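Team,

Forwarding the record for the chain on the shared tracking sheet. I've put the sequence and predicted structure together so nobody has to dig through attachments.
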Amino acid sequence: MPFKQEELLAALGEPLTNAVVARLHRLAHLPAAHLATLARGALSEVWGTENYALEKYLAVHIAWSIEQNRYTLSETQLFVTAGHLQTRYGTPIYLVFERNENVGRQPLYCVYVGSDVSAPSLPTAPNIPAPPEIPRGAEVIMLHDHILRDNADRVPFLKKTPPVSQMCAISGAIQWSLNRGLQLPYWYYGQMSYLVPLYMQSRENITQAPDLIAPIQVNRDSLIVRTVLLPHMPYANARVSVRRHDQLPSWMLAAWSANATETTREQIENPEPSIVNAAG
């Protein structure tokens, strides 16, 4: 039976979610052995324990491929790229799916991962959506409790500073980085936004890791700051948002490499859990 985009989109479900790996699992079964094959075959980078950051990367990019109609078909198979991943020789890597024969399970089953694919036509990688433009003069609005009360251990240097001064310090650090174009694209909850590095104790060398990172949500005339994160925490979401890992700042790559094995699946899935819990 041929694959129809409507069926695939229905299996994926709602795009506005942080549970993107679960979303992928509703669409397709991806054996752990194939995930490991992909990690070995692609350009070398750190994917964390059990390649979970890689699985999240695929979950977002495969969904984009389906939504953007960037897949191809044969009579019995469906082909997508492994996002923008390539071999060390620059060859795109593909995933090949067939219809899952287990009744009542996800519609697709991955049967092959690699660069050597025979298909009537090969797919192209999905577009990475551009984050919204930051409006000039936008007001910075902070969720103070989440930033400074719930995450006080991340800002010990502000511990003895009055709350208003703390907010002014973070807001000023955000504007300082935005004025210098230091923001990074960031996928979160089904949408693109930004990460802003916060240099609060020293600004002598912006190639070094910042004290904190602020995810910001762009509204029409304001920037919403939901929380502050340590430099390694948003890596998986930032990795989704660029074609190659070397397009991320070296300080983020170093911070992630130092913390990848200790970062849990839950932390990779959602680096801002307190926000979702509060909303729910």
